[in-house]
Amino acid sequence: MSLGVYVIRRLLQMIPVLLGVVFLVFSMLHIVPGDPAMIMAGEQASPAALERMRERLGLNDPLPVQYVRYLGNAIRGDLGESVRNNRAVTDEIFASRYWITLQLAIMSIALAVFIGVIAGIISAVWRHSLFDTMIMLIALFGLSMPSFWLGIMLIFWFSVQFFWLPAAGWGSLPQAVLPVITLGTAGAAVIARMTRSSMLEVINQDYIRTARAKGVKESVVIAKHALRNALIPVVTVVGLQFGFFLGGSVLTETVFAINGLGRLMVSAINARDFPIVQGAVLVASVSFMAVNLIVDITYRFLNKRIELN
Amino acid sequence: MSQVVADDGIVPENPVLPAGRWRVLFRKLLQNRAAVVGGVFIILLLVIALFPDLFATHHPTRFQNPANRFQPPSSEHWFGTDNLGRDIYSRVIHGTRVTLSVAFQSVFVGAVVGVSLGILAGYYGKWIDTIIMRLMDILLAFPGILLALAIVSALGPSLRNVIIAISIFSIPTFARIVRGSTLVVRDLEYIEAIRALGARDSKIIVQHVLPNVLSPIIVQATLYIATAILIASGLSFLGLGAQPPIPEWGLMLSAGRDFIWNAVHVSLFPGLAIMLAVLSFNLLGDGLRDALDPRLK
Asked: Does A174 touch chain B (CB under 8 A)?
């Protein structure tokens, strides 16, 4: 199957999943215990105000009609309006919030890949050495640490104790350091573990043994033969992690008071502003699916090249 | 929270453990020092969760004394006191039960539903398989904690809703793993023989398929308890889970965040507790996986 056919097939496969995701996001409003109109308009809302809210959210129509309308609007890029300030949900999300989260996620994944891949290679090459043990132990701690706690501790050391770095906000490079470490640490740990096991698997394969037997220098074996193949499965993990960063930066953004997508979501949840929550969840999920698609295509492309070689 | 799904993607290739090998597995596990450490910590946590009063030195929620606020760690208050003058050590101790019960309940429900769906999909195949696995794809399309966050935001903030949210979040992972194992088991010769002898599907599934797919489920469940602890405390940290004055670790951290300038110990210790609990389950889960699939140690 050529790459083009594969891409088209993947895109077609995404359609039912997308419809399902939109359906779940749409259902959020309807699993709310009680009357969603009253929750959003407030307990003291007059019957007239409640009716206006129902009308505005389209709650008076049958559910299938509501779903089809939500879906149709979403396809056209209309995710409704914020109940709080009547701004279009897409404006709230894409004016700046989404891009801030995207920046945070990209910087964090860059850090995670850099540290994770290097640590994983060191661990695999010097397997069972002190380095290996140390790196894997640190990785395990990195996986087990709650990111929000790590963030708070970093603020304590670098902002409260020594005034080296700002504790909040987004926009300058110093402001990015602590949040990027906070978000990237767990990803680095996952990537390090994955790189290590992938490297070990490749190193034990016949062609590596052949290369060694031919007298190729160990460093060349690692760099030219092992690494190239070992990193292919790592690509998948990197893609997944990037998606998690996109959707999961909620906690990091909360700790560092960064006005990204996650913090928008949390404030909207507290204000019971459901159109915003729904829009944010939908945008993050679609982004995640897009990233996964790109990763799968990359993976296939890399694999193809190796098959050809 | 990216580590929420800290799955390396390393699933044993042929994760079917022949029946009667449990003792071998256990012996292998005992040789793995890290797994033993994890297991011992888990036992300790369970004892604390069952009998918190044996360990706590103060009442976890009753206000001690407003004048007693922000005491640094001392012989009287091992972890210091918080903004209301409560003993943080005792609150961390009592929080163990909250955290473990939320994690165990949510993983149990998620595993039961996920395993059932996975077996149905793998055993019957065809359109049942397609429908179930597409549904799982939809649940997996929500990145990280977003699915749990969305569910809790709709249902309202409470520990019960956190359990529901994490259960739903963990269903697809169990379903996928179990489906894979079921496919392997289904085509084993002796299963075909039993079927040819006229055994009913329900009997084959309960007596033969389920025991054979149990080992990957146990590995996954152990690792998922670690994940559940991270998500649950994260949701409580955001104010969407446990509500005051419940001594929940994530909630304690979020309260402590405001006092980081003068009293870092308020956030330090609950965070350490979360990390220790998560680490223990990760150690045991890794050990179980290695014992089942020793290829890459």
From this structure: no
